[in-house]
Amino acid sequence: MRISPRMESLKPYLFVEINKKIAEKKAKGEEVISFAIGDPDIPTPENIIEKLCQAAKDPENHHYPETAGLPELRKAIADWYQRRFSVSLDADREVLPLIGAKEGIAHVALCLIDSGDVALVPNPAYPVYVISTELVGGEPYYMPLTEGRNYLPDLDAIPEEVLKRAKVLWLNYPNNPTGAVANLDFFNGVVRFARQHDLAVCHDAPYTEVAFDGYQPVSFLQADGAKDVGIEFHSLSKSYNMTGWRIGMAVGNTDIIGALGSIKSNLDSGIPQAIQYAAIEALGGSQECIARHNAIYQRRRDLILEVLEDIGLKARPAKAGLYVWAKVPKGYTSMEFASDLLQQVGVVVIPGVGYGSNGEGYVRLSLTIPDASLVKGLTRLSAWKDNKDRLKQKK
Ligand SMILES: Cc1ncc(COP(=O)(O)O)c(C=O)c1O
After folding, report:
1. Measured from the CA of 125, which atom of ligand 1 is nearest?
2. Crossing angle of the two packed helices 128-135 and 101-112, in degrees rounded to 10
3. What is the spatial distance between Cα 226 and Cα 268, in angstroms, rounded to a whole number?
4. What is the pTM of this model?
5. Per-domain residue ranges for the chain?
6. Any residues with Cβ below 6 Å from ligand 1, and which?
7. Which CATH class is domain 5-44+288-394?
8. Whose CA is closest to atom 7 on ligand 1?
9. What would the pLDDT profile of 224-262 be if each residue is shown by its tens digit?
C-alpha cells in the first residue's frame, strides 16, 4: 500500500494541532481558557431548531437530498441576498447550497485550477484557499495583507509574469484573521482587475452579518459586473450560530456555479433536507438574533480591547467579524507568545503565523467565548502581565 506523495505536503490543519495542545493540558487536570476557534458559543436560535426538529420527523426528509439543494432553499438564499444586499440572483443558475462554505472553498479549486496554475491568495488568510490550490497541483502566490494598507492587497504590486499564470483571486472581507473590512470602491477595482487579467474572483464572506458600531459590511456581488467575474461564498455558520449543522452557499457567476455543482454532484450527496429547512427558516424568518448576537460580541470585543491595552498589546477595534487581531509584545514571535500564555496562565490564542508568514507578530483572539470564561481569561491575561513585571523588577 502506498499513500500518495500529495499527502506529504499536507500539514495538520491549524486547529487540530491547537486542540491537541489543549487536550494535553486538560489531561493534566489544568483548566484552559480558549480564545481559539471562531465557533459561536451562543446556541442556534430557537425558531431554527424548532424547524429542524419538525423537518427531521418528516419521512420525506429521510432520503438522499439533491446536491443542488431544495428549490425552496435556493429561493430563500436568493431572496436573502436581495433583501440584505439588493443583489438579484437567479435561484437556479446563480445559487448553490453547500455543506458549509469550507466544502465549497475546497471543491472550487477542482473547477478553476490546473497543474501549474497560480491562485492569488492573501497572507495571512483562512488556510483552506492555499490547501485546496496545492491539492490540485496549483501554486499559491501570496498577496501581503499589512496594517499599513488596512489589510487590503496591493493588486498593482503583483508581477506581470505571475498574473499571466494566475487563474483565481481569493479575497475575504470582513477578514479572518485581521478583522479588516473592504468597501465597494475596493470591490469595483477588483472587478476591473479581474477582467483585465482574466481571473475568477472567489470572495469568501461568511462574516458579513457579524458587525459592530452600526457598520454594515457589503457583498462583493454589489460591485458593478461582479457576477461576470466571480462568486461569493457565504455561510449560515456565523450569522445564525449554525457551525455544527454544516450549511452555506456559493452565489454569483453561472459558469463557476455550474462547474461547482457538477463537481459536487459527483462527489457528495447534498445537505440533509431537515437542515435545509432549518436554513430556510434562518434566512427567511425573524432576523432579530443578528443584532442580539452582535451586541454580545461587541461588548466582548470592547472588554478584550480594554484588557489588551492595559497589558500593552496594540489592537484595532474590528468593525466586523469574530476576532481581535493583536500585536504581540516586543521580544516575542507570535508562536512564542501564544506558547507562553498557554504555559504560564493556561490561555489559548492563535499565533498569527498560523495564517501565513505575514501573520507573524500578531495573535488572534476569538469573541466566541462564553462570558464567564471571558472574564476568567482576561483576568489571567492581566496576571500574565503582572508576573512578567514582577520578574523584570527582580532582575
Ligand atoms: C474565512 C472563513 N471562511 C470559511 C469558513 C468556514 O465556514 P463554514 O462553517 O461555512 O464551513 C470560516 C470558518 O471559520 C472562515 O473563517
Report:
1. 1
2. 40
3. 28
4. 0.96
5. 5-44+288-394, 46-284
6. 38, 100-102, 126, 172, 176, 204, 206, 235, 237, 243, 248
7. alpha beta
8. 101
9. 999 999 999 999 999 999 999 999 999 999 999 999 999
